[in-house]
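At this stage, I wrote out one protein, both as residues and as discrete backbone shape codes, and that material follows here.
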Amino acid sequence: MSRLSHLEIHMVHRIGWLRAAVLGANDGLVSTASLVVGVAAAGSGKSEVLIAGMAGLVAGAMSMAAGEYVSVSSQTDAERADLARETRELSETPEAELEELTNIYVDRGLDRDLAEKVAVQLTERDALGAHARDELGISETVTARPIQAALVSALTFAVGAVVPLIVALLAPEAQIAVLVAASTVAGLAVLGGLGASAGGAALVRGAARVTLWGVLAMAATAMVGTLFGVTVG
């Protein structure tokens, strides 16, 4: 019999940048569209709407980059602290660490003898790597990357924010709020579907959950703009 190759494609390696990309694009689209709809609903002219939208794009992109960098850096610091502590424990109490690793494999379903053999062999090969992966849940695949997260978030935020700005620029002044809201709903559905597809999830569910929150955000800002907007003659 011929040997068949078994190729598997997994999505977990995308977690680091996918979360930042989806969050950035979604936030850029929703926040900028909500800002544009709110300002337009308040009776402002097209120039005021565009200025507000551009300011929201720049401020939002910088805020997303800073926020992602700080939050992911905190995760990285925690991972490094855990690895440093594990390195110290492996040096000071190797027998206890071997027993701890053995018990982890026993809890996962291996019998005691096999679990001990696995723990010994993995410890001999890469003790810290084994404990990082199986005790702490830290692996190279899903490790935090602050700079990558910051850049991806800022870029995707700007890309998402451009959509309502283009619509606002091209739309008649009296229809800016309606057309921006409609295009944003469509954009959110596409974004949710793409994010779900990239992550291996259901397209309809991904599109629906993103669209729902975007509609709520725009409705809230439109209400605020309508209630408190003042047109100066």
User: Anything to note?
Assistant: Residues 86-134 form one domain.
